[in-house]
Specification:
By secondary structure, this protein is an alpha+beta fold. The protein is built from six helices and 16 strands.
Length: 302
Amino acid sequence: MYSIFGQLRGTTQTYSTHLYDNASQQFADYLNSLDRSTIVLVLTRGDAKAKLQQNAIDAINSLGSTMITQYVNQPANNSFVIISRTNRLRPLAEATSNGQTHPYLVSFTHLSNDDFGSDYSDDITTSVPTQLLNGIGETTISAGSANPRTAPTGTSDFCYTYIQSYPSQISPQQQAQSFVMSSISEDAGTAYFTTGYSLNSQTAITKMIDDIGNIPIGNLVVICSSTLDSGFIMPDDLSLAFTTIGSQFSYNITSNSSFAIIGRKGSAPGSVAESLNNQGPVSVYSNFRKSPRLSSLSLIQR
């Protein structure tokens, strides 16, 4: 594939799936050879799927991908990113789009002290960041959203939250509501509550605002959009409440949006894992550990 990659300390491989028929098999063989404990990043740029074959798609699916099929089958989609461990049911984070919606942000916080550099490479690039193999923390959270209007065919989980690899209890009734919110104990790694909100009245909007306001400072908060009504416009007062957990994109949520955030009550806007997309699903991942030194790692696709 033709891709862009920010350099990590680790093993980097590049595959020209926009040019060569055998590049797809080479890419698949490399992914399939990785140890189960390996964290791998795949990034694309340009017409990376021109000669991408089913062998490579299957290998990406083994990372827990839920979006590679949409990326391949939607002609307008020209960007894809995933970070995951091999043989996972869910990726750590993943996104695909046509490159026009802003922002495309996949955030991974508290993984390691490694940063991205400014080196750029052509073709599909995979990286195995060796420093990420150590120090995975005590509380891991992943969350995602797939707006039914833009989700791949067959998608049933319009929103999800995983804590320590176990799904938070989001009922079918909550899946049919506008947003689902969980307040989570960082120490125990369990949810204090998980609640769905159908924002079809000012009373319902006020209820969600009040619930956010009542969450103690420092608590972890996960919010994902689910089934937003046609014509939905994010209320300003609710967007303001979202900023109290670190959101910077909530003012841009519309009826077509997929939105997910792993925030912390009292965090500054833009300081937490958050993703918004109007063309397809989103996912975010955060890892929290009891350590005086916490670092962050962000990938920005443009």
